[in-house]
Every structure is written in structure tokens, then in C-alpha cells.
Amino acid sequence: MKTLRLNVAKSEYDKSINTAAEILKNGGVVGMPTETVYGLAASAYDDNAIKKVFVAKGRPQDNPLIVHICDLGMLNEVADDIPEIAYTLAEKFWPGALTMVLNRSEKIADSVSAGLTTVAVRMPSNPVALDVIKVSGLPLAAPSANLSGKPSPTTANHVLNDLEGKIDAVLMGDDCDFGVESTVITLVGQTPMLLRPGAVTYEQLLKVLPNLEISDAVLNELKVGDKAESPGMKYKHYAPKTTAFLVEGENFTDFVNTKQNAVAVCFEEEASDIKIPKLIYGSKNDTLTLAHSCFSVLREVDKFGAENVFIHAPEKQGVGLAVYNRLIRAAAFKVIKL
Ligand code: TXA
Ligand code: MG
User: Is residue 231 part of a domain?
Assistant: First the structure.
């Protein structure tokens, strides 16, 4: 299959959005930019189209997709028995990087929910994504547009690197603003629960949802037989081929300088003292930059051909929690505490 590159510069914008919408209405799959990461979109009503998404990514069948909508009318189409608090959260955080798990409506294709009775929904803020949803008139199921297990794509070229020839088209938008995936919370069940940290922070959500709990899976590896509230959390993820370790503590520079055949992923402040090959992912306290660059940096690690990569862990607060959550998975939960 030839993958179309759809240019979204001003002169070609309308034409490209229309082409993407037509492909989606005809059961095709399209890579699209969002403010978090690039998504691989298909109609949430079309079981066949959704199956193509799973095949292109090599995604495990039991890992459900997020449905992207453009207005609250669409929310009422894709979810049922929506609690009042969902509308309060929507007003505060949508369009934006918050995904809510709700009871699903019967209209949603079974494969979107991977057999669950729930559906994850978000309204993205990226105008390209919003326009494709609007023009197609379809809620779009879209997981991140990477091969399953690889770092999520934050540029159109990352999508092509992973999926060229396997999908119908890519909307060649800008690099993603945020760079890690949306915050996922579930509002189904007794207590609201944070399933995946993201740009909308736990601290921000607590102001609206004072009883919000953090799922154990956010910072810990699930044991065999544990029930995953969010199936995606149980898989190894985001990993380079180089063996990765997450390193916590102040003495990172001394630690990595004793290592051979290794790469360091470090903060700006310590870079000049590090004597082994290194990649900088931002300033220690600038967690937005760390989020923005973490997946690109993970995609670059393998080019050194080293045996191990040591990644300096960010703080686990605010946006730092989202970055830490992705990096601990990239390291397959191998944490070194200095
Ligand atoms: O920012 C994002 O959320 C990006 C962009 C494209 O919007 N999408 C994304 O999709 O990250 P994906 O498929 O890579 O991650 C979806 C996560 C998975 O961890 C999945 O298990 C969880 O959401 N999820 C989806 N539906 C769910 C459901 N019904 N119940 C619990 N978790 C669900
Ligand atoms: Mg993903």
C-alpha cells in the first residue's frame, strides 16, 4: 500500500482534510497530529477499519483504543450514563489532554473497547485533528501511531518511520506540543482513578475530583494475574533496543562516568560533566521540555550501538509523573536508586 502524505500548509489544508475524511468514511486508516502524540485514526463505528489499526500497529487485541470527538454532542453518541462530573471535567479540560473512561454506547465497534463495557473518550485541541473529526462527522478511534512497544510518535516522520506502507495516509502536521500521551482517568466504578498520568496533572484533577486515586499500575509493574484497569499499562512500552535503566538520585554524573559501552540520557545542567556518550532531554525542573523530548530521545538511543542506556529520572510530581511513568516502562521497571 502506498501511504499518502497529506500536506496541511494553508494552501492545501482544506483539500487534505477532505481527503483524510473521505478515506476514514471509506474504512481507511490515517495518521493524524494531536497536541499529545500522533494518533492512528479510524472510524469508531467501523469494526473492520478498527481491525486494520490493530494489524498496522501489531497491537495486542485486548488493549482498547481512545475515541476522539469534536463536541459534546458526539460525547453523548459514544458514551452512555454519563455522570455529571464528566461534563464538569470536560468544561475545564477539553479540548485537551484528558481522556475519560465511561460506559460505552452500543454504537461503538466492539473492537474499540476490546471486549470491555467501557469506552475511553477525549476531545483533542489540535485543530487538524478537530477538523478531520468535524468534516468526517465520525468519532475517531486513535491509538498512538507507533508500532506497538516502540516510543510514541511526536513528529509526522516518526509515524512514517514506523508505518509507511501499512496505512492509507498521514496528515503531515507540526511536531506535537506536549509529547507524551493524554492523562487517562476512569469515572466508572466506585472511586475515580488515574490510570495514566499526562499533561493534565494529578494535582490539577484533585481540585475537581478530591477523591481521585492513583492506580498502582502508574508506578509499579503489574504481577502475573493482577487485573489491569487500563490494559495498556501491563505491556512493556516505549523501549529502545538498547537495555535501559532508570536512575534515581543526585549522583548521576559520577555513576555514569564509571560505565563502559553505555549511553546517558541526562539533564542539561549535568551534561558538561558527563564523559560518556549522552543525549540531553531538557532542564531538570522544566518538566514540560522533558515531556516534549523524552520519546524523540528514546528513538535516538540505539544509534550509539551501546549495550546499556542509563536515564536520569525526573521528579514524580506534576508533569514529571507522566514522564517518569513512560521512562520506567522504557526501562522495563529496572530502577537503580543511587
Ligand atoms: O494522547 C493520547 O491519548 C494519544 C493520542 C493519539 O490521542 N492516544 C493514545 O492511545 O495514547 P493509546 O492507544 O496509545 O493509549 C490508550 C490507553 C491505553 O493505555 C489503553 O489501555 C487505555 O488508554 N484505554 C483505552 N480504553 C480504555 C478503557 N475502556 N478502559 C481503560 N483503559 C482504556
Ligand atoms: Mg500507545
Answer: no
Residues 112 and 212 in one domain: yes
Ligand 1, pocket-test mutation among 180, 184, 294, most atoms within 8 A of CB: 184
With a threshold of 0.85, does the pTM exceed it?
Answer: yes
Q: Is residue 142 part of a domain?
A: yes
Which residues does a 6 A CB cutoff place in the pocket of ligand 1? 34, 36-37, 39, 63-66, 99, 101, 113, 116, 118-120, 124, 142-144, 181-182, 184, 195-196, 230-233
Residues 131 and 175 in one domain: yes
Minimum-distance ligand to the CA of 34?
1
Q: Tell me the DSSP string of 214-233.
A: E-GGGTSPPPTTPPPSSGGG
Q: At what angle do helices 319-330 and 287-300 cross, to 10 degrees?
A: 20
**What CATH number should be reported for the domain holding residue 329?**
3.40.50.11030
- What CATH number is given to the structural domain containing 90? 3.90.870.10
**Distance in angstroms (rounded) separating the CA atoms of residues 319 and 97:** 12
C-alpha cell at 30: 490515517
User: pLDDT digit string (tens) for 208-249?
Assistant: 999 999 999 898 887 767 766 777 776 667 889 999 999 999
Query: Could you tell me what percent of the chain has a pLDDT over 70?
Result: 97
Domain limit, last residue, from 218, 253, 285: 218
From residue 9, alpha-carbon distances to 25, 37, 172, 321 in Å are 23, 19, 9, 35
Ligand 1 atom with minimal separation from the 119 CA: 29
Domain range for 59 is 4-218
Same domain, residue pair 68 and 213: yes
255-279 average pLDDT score: 98
